[in-house]
Amino acid sequence: MNPTARWGLLGLAFAVSACSVLESDKVDYKSATKAPTLEVPPDLTQLSQDSRYTVPGGAVSAAAFEAGKATSKSEAQSKTAIAQIADVRIERDGDRRWLVVDRPADKLWEPVREFWQENGFNLVIEQPELGIMETDWAENRAKIPQDFIRSTIGKVFDSLYSTGERDKFRTRFERTPTGGTEIYITHRGMEEVYASSTKDSTVWQPRKPDPELEAEFLRRLMVKLGVSQEQAKAVAAAPELKAPAAQLANVNGTPIVRLNEGFDRAWRRVGLALDRTGFTVEDRNRNEGLYFVRYVAPNPDKKEPGFFGKIFGSSDAAPPLKYRIRVHAENEGNTTVSVLNETGAPETSANAERILKVLVEDLR
């Protein structure tokens, strides 16, 4: 079909359905198998599947988690909304939600894996040793109007219909001191936009993470884990608590982020921000307040659209640099976030400031 006919058909379809409105919480994902594969932006590199890194038992063991968590238990209880059904509960801190399940992580891995597949996703990262799984980029087909033309010819010309948006989700498992598991789901989105005013080509660029999409999949995961639909809807509607602002500052030439909250809450928020913004966390050490990440600096000689640059991989990309994101408790109610280099020394380069700017945008 030539482009003129294709756009004419699409125009007719959307004209017929102009008055139809979809429910905002309706999701129906289908993995993008024919569209170009979306990769991570060049400044946020992907971790190769590697068995060198081990989870729980070392720096991220239950004992280490408990040591840090016990000191701020009252803070977490006072600032976090909690709703529980059976052995599954949902906790909320600002626009961030997560599940706490009274089951070991190894018993939850397969049900969560099945959950994503049942919801229309393929998994491109499965790392039980790190407690991380990640979906591929997929399209929410529920955003396409289901009008008469769509229902009649959609199955034949399905490729004509596209939302121009793609989503992917990362699931992270954290073990608790009592033998249970915290499950975090974070969203990343891309959208297709015109590259110029002539509208003769398009590029993909990042769009903001959607906390409501994260909440919807947490609710659905609760149902998968045994909670009824009605109960899951009720507990997912926990009241929102406003998260404190994050401020970018500079101390003696070193960029930092200041958070007006204790370590336990700051550690959780920074971890979620790293997931949402696409950083690859190779390892983490909660006792020392460290996330070990990989980063590819943007090439200033390339004209790359948007803050994150192009999303398609290239063979001449610069090798990733290794950094440590340090979460440090200044006192009971204040925490700082800084970037250290691979040896553990404070990083003062432009890369450190770029990394913290990415994080602070999500922490605000």
TrEMBL record:
InterPro entries: BamC_C, NlpB/DapX. It comes from the Bacteria. PROSITE patterns: PROKAR_LIPOPROTEIN (PS51257). Pfam families: Lipoprotein_18. This is Beta-barrel assembly machine subunit BamC. It comes from Extensimonas vulgaris.
